[in-house]
Amino acid sequence: MINYCFFNTVSAWGGGEKWHLEVASYLHEKGFNVLVVAAPNSALALKAKALGIEVSFIKLSNLSFLNPLVINRIARLLKHYDVDNLIMNSPRDLKSAGIAAYLLKLPKVIFRRGSDIAIKNNILNRFLYQSVVHKVLVNSPATEASLNANNGQLVAKSKIKLIPNGIDFGKFLSEPFSPIYTKQAGELVLCTLGRLVPQKNHGFLIDVAEVLKKKQLRFKLLIGGSGPLEGELKKKAKTKGVAEHILFTGFIERPKDLYMSGDIFLLPSLWEGFGYVLAEAGLCSLPSIAFNISSNSQIIQDGITGTLVSEQNPLPFADAVIQLSEDKELRQELGVAANKFVKQSFDAERIFKEIEREIS
Of 180, 239, 227, which Cα lies nearest the Cα of 201? Predict the structure, then answer.
């Protein structure tokens, strides 16, 4: 019998996959029978196997739910492992695995919603959220608000539980690191981390870099991550004349290597369910600058642990960078406060215990 099945077929590594791996690992270490269903050769599958967690493979598309053979295969998999609790993270998986679970009458179907994107009010979603899902876990007030943004009755309030993401700060801070960049004398090092996709809005930082260059700030911008926009972003950096100020690091296996190379962390994302990177940067005592949108204010205390910029405009964002560049003591003060706030607010042990109670 499998007590908990974490069903996540997203190939790329992101916040949802990190959440699934950490919660699955926590329950596995407590002695529960845990299964991870993932895409073949995905980062989640490889990391789960390395931790000794049982992994089963399946590949899905957004339209897989329309294929009875796929639904039947998932149902047979869930029945074979005698799954008690099914936990999913992406709409694609909810549509396919959720329908299979509904047909099997699984005792507990959990959907973990981590994106601040309004859910479409259509027949399929009303069926999934009202008849299939027993509980929805959300990681921020912004994500919670997005559930019923298009239909006030789409998800019953009794089904919704707000639990922020947890950070095992003891483990994170004790891990060794090797800075990926050596700071030059008199240079300010800015860093960011995320998949190179439209949501993460890295092109905006290239515009910010152009402003900083015009203001004659000596700086280096480290852009950590990989993705389909890499070529386009590099081309833009050359066109804007700031290529020499930007280092594209590629995929970062150990995020701490990036954070410990920087002075300030920047997050230009257009939305975030929960900014893991903001919390991790805070643990590394980095002040952060981000837009005052989505869940960012849940992690950044404006003027205390970092800066929240109201306008999605390169000029005020650059001004925030320059303000911190001119005051080293303020940067250090904000960084110390960020470290303290993350430890107090997002302790993994406490949060994972709360998640366990909700999905059991």
Answer: 227
- Structure confidence by residue, pLDDT tens digits, 247-295: 999 999 999 999 999 999 999 999 888 889 999 999 999 999 999 998 8
The SS3 of residue 57 is strand
Alpha carbon 49 to its chain's center: 21
Distance of CA 345 to the CA centre of its chain: 17
| CATH H-level superfamily of 171-345 | Glycogen Phosphorylase B; (3.40.50.2000)
CATH 3.40.50.2000 positions along the chain are 2-162, 171-345
Q: Which residues contact 139 (CB under 8 A, 6 or more apart)?
A: 19, 112, 113, 114, 162, 163, 164, 165, 273, 274, 295
Rounded Cα–Cα distance for residues 165 and 275 (Å): 9
The CATH fold assigned to 2-162 is Rossmann fold (3.40.50)
